[in-house]
Amino acid sequence: MAKFKKKKKGGSGAINTASLPDIVFMLLFFFMVSTTMKEVEMKVITRLPEATELSRLERKSLVTYIYVGVPMRQYQRSHGTEPRIQLNDQFATPEDIQSFIAQEREAMREHERPLMTVSIKADYDCPMGIITDIKQALRRAQALRINYSARQGDDLAYNF
């Protein structure tokens, strides 16, 4: 007489994981293609001044940029040819800087707020009056860490 074994109930087969790497790479590729870094649309022309003693900023995520320069050609009809201030993607006045700084601080984590640095990217030919107005507005906003952006230049020769 032969012995018959009973089939076990409730058991299911193993899950096939052969296509898992394909799915992971598809998701990775999708996020790489669809993600964009935050970039500001430049509306002013900035030719940075040259400097010999430069240092790099440590954490660029803590830097807020203020651009100063002559509006680009397509914006000159509506904004003129005098140097203007650009905050993010729009033109602004020195009075707008205080609320801009407050808004940027709110977007940061609380422990990083004291480390916030404001970088002024001003055109080489920009009048100093605009820079002074910006500095006064930053002082009223309690943004006292200021950086001036420049490009690396050769040793500057002074002619006397």
TrEMBL record:
Record field: transmembrane: 12-33
Q: Does the keyword Metal-binding apply?
A: no
Q: How does it sit in the membrane?
A: Single-pass membrane protein; Single-pass type II membrane protein
Task: Alphabetically list the UniProt keywords.
Answer: Cell membrane, Membrane, Protein transport, Transmembrane, Transmembrane helix, Transport
For the keyword Cell membrane, the answer is yes
> Where does the record place it?
Cell membrane
GO cellular component terms listed in the entry, alphabetical order: plasma membrane
Q: Name one GO molecular function term.
A: transmembrane transporter activity
**UniProt record, GO biological process:** protein transport
Q: Which family does it belong to?
A: Belongs to the ExbD/TolR family.
What's the protein name? Biopolymer transport protein ExbD
Which species is this UniProt entry from? Answer: Natronoflexus pectinivorans
